[in-house]
Design a protein that fits this description.
Layout (H helix, E strand, L loop, with lengths): L6 E4 L4 H14 L4 E6 L5 H6 L4 E4 H13 L1
Parallel strand pairs: 1-2, 2-3
């Protein structure tokens, strides 16, 4: 079955669940832009290998937010 979503945003908290969903979405739709939130930067590479176009690690997001508050 083909799925025609243009963009998929995955924000589920568990890394193994995010892996499974990313892989399934990529198999169902080769052209979708997949954005995944993950807790740690070290998880980003695996999610990209599974098909994520962009990975947003909480570590980086929180650091950016704190830095922005200081300026």
């Amino acid at each position: 079955k083909n799925w025609n979503a243009k963009q998929v945003i995955i924000t589920i908290p568990g890394f193994s669940d995010a892996e499974a969903i990313t892989s399934k979405v990529r198999k169902m739709n080769h052209g979708a832009n997949i954005v995944v939130r993950t807790k740690y930067l070290q998880e980003a590479e695996q999610l990209q290998k599974l098909g994520a176009n962009q990975v947003v690690p909480e570590e980086i997001s929180v650091a950016d937010t704190i830095t922005g508050m200081m300026v």
